[in-house]
Amino acid sequence: MWFSYTGELRRFFVLNATPAGLFVQLTRLISTNDAAKYLGCERSTVRRLVLGGELPVITRFKHWKLDVRDLDTFIAANKIGGAQ
Hints:
Elements: E1 13-18, E2 21-26, E3 29-30, H1 32-39, H2 43-51, E4 58-60, E5 63-67, H3 68-77
Antiparallel strand pairs: 1-2, 3-5, 4-5
C-alpha cells in the first residue's frame, strides 16, 4: 500500500526503512506550534491548556513537547454531540 500526503501534516510523518520494506510512522512528540496546527487552534490556546493541566507536556531542553496520543485522547474526551 502506498501512502501519499500533502500540506502541513507531512511534518508529522517519518519514512522508515527496514529489511521488510518502507513504512510511514507518525512522529510521537511534537512542538506546541505543531500541536496547535494538529488541534486547529492557536499556540496560546495550547499553552493555556498545558498550564491549566488539561494537556500533559514533556519538557526537553526548556522546550515543551506534546505526545500526539495525548492530543488524540484530548480530542476524544472533548467531542460533543453525534451518536451516543
